[in-house]
Amino acid sequence: MDLATIIGMLGAIILVAIAISLGASPIIFVNPIGLIIVVGGSSMIVLSQMSFAEVRLAAKAVVRAFKSTLPDMMSTIDEMLEVSKMARKSGLLALENHEASSTFLARGLQMLADGYSPDMLKEVLDKERLMTLDRNRAGARAFSLLTDVSPAMGMVGTLIGLVDMLANMDDPSKIGPAMAVALLTTLYGVLIAQIIANPIAEKLELRTQQQERLQALWTDALMAIQQGRNPRVVEQVLLTYLPQEQREKRQEDLAAQEAGQAPGTA
Fold first, then answer.
1. Which of 4, 105, 252, 255 has its C-alpha lying 20 to 30 A from 153's C-alpha?
2. Which residues of 113-130 are buried (b: 16+ CB within 10 A; e: fewer)?
3. Residue 108, burial from CB neighbour count under 10 angstroms (0-12, 13-18, 19+)
4. Whole-prediction pTM
5. Which residues form the domain of 22?
6. Count of domains observed in the chain
7. In a domain, 38, yes or no
8. Angle between helix 244-258 and helix 73-90 axes, rounded to 10 deg
9. Is 70 helix (H, G, I), strand (E, B) or coil?
10. 266: pLDDT confidence band, cut at 50, 70 and 90?
11. Is residue 254 in a domain?
């Protein structure tokens, strides 16, 4: 579970709710007409710009914003070093028995065991990476569109409310409700865009970037293993995926191990 996403979104909602409750009655911020214009109108516009397949991807993608199933980079490097040592000791055929941490890696290991050529291996893995990237971004597209559309629909509601208000200037009892629609639709549009849609869209893009880096790492590792490179060489290649601070810490631990000391005590 991604606590940052949950805390951030809930925190924003709670702060807005507190601000509303400290003023007048919260019920005055509920306007069915405004909600229909913003929520209903935004949903229909987003739907008109997408296919039903993309809508289904978007529905599934929401889970990825709140829960990451991706392994961290350090544990991935450790796993690939284990695979490299296994291949060096027992041959590529032994890799099909390894319980991979992802379907992408499992497919790559099976291809190694099946004896795919280096060119074919890279071509298939690169294609898989690109298709995964496209699917992930298609799922996130709905929330990017909603970020743009909902404030615009809020402005539409504002204009409708203003026109209604101006058309009923001779009836003071109708001015208040019309002004409420005008102001609240703008509020609804901004809240939906900035508290819900945009955070989800940005978090999904972050997930996509993380998955892309992991798949690139797996590809580099599998190619190096297929070429029969020494596990230490494989490790040095994979360490380039770590930030400089983590890379230096890893190098210190390796140096400590070689010196016969416990990791992290050098």
1. 4
2. beebeeeebbeebeebbe
3. buried
4. 0.82
5. 3-73+121-229
6. 1
7. yes
8. 40
9. coil
10. very low
11. no
pLDDT classification of 261: cutoffs 50, 70, 90: low
Cα-to-chain-centroid distance, residue 263: 34
Phi, psi of 174 (to 5 degrees): -100, -10
- Residue 248, amino acid: E
Residues of the chain above pLDDT 70, percent: 96
Q: For residue 41, give both structure tokens.
A: 């109108």
The better pLDDT of the pair 205, 69 is held by: 205
Query: Which tokens is 215 given?
Result: 């798949």
Whether 196 is covered by a domain: the verdict is yes
**How far is residue 175's CA from residue 84's CA, in Å, rounded to a whole number?**
74
59-76: average pLDDT:
84
Q: What is the rounded CA–CA span in Å between residue 141 and residue 136?
A: 9
Which two three-digit tokens encode residue 32? 């069915």
Whether residue 97 contacts residue 89, with contact meaning beta carbons closer than 8 Å, is answered with: no
Position 40 in a domain:
yes
**Structure tokens belonging to residue 197:** 């849609």
Residue pLDDT, tens place only, 79-131? 999 999 999 998 898 888 888 888 999 999 999 999 899 999 999 999 999 99
Long-range pairs of 114-122 with CB within 8 A, sequence gap ≥ 24: 118/223, 118/226, 118/227, 121/222, 121/223, 121/226, 122/219, 122/223
Amino acid 137: pLDDT: 87
Tell which residue, 146, 145, 140, has the closest CA to residue 202.
Answer: 140
**DSSP labels for 57-83?**
HHHHHHHHHH---PPPHHHHHHHHHHH
Q: What is the dihedral of CA 101, 106, 112, 117, to 10 degrees?
A: -120
CA–CA dist 105, 212 (Å, integer): 13
Residue among 4, 2, 10, 1 at smallest CA distance from 196 = 10
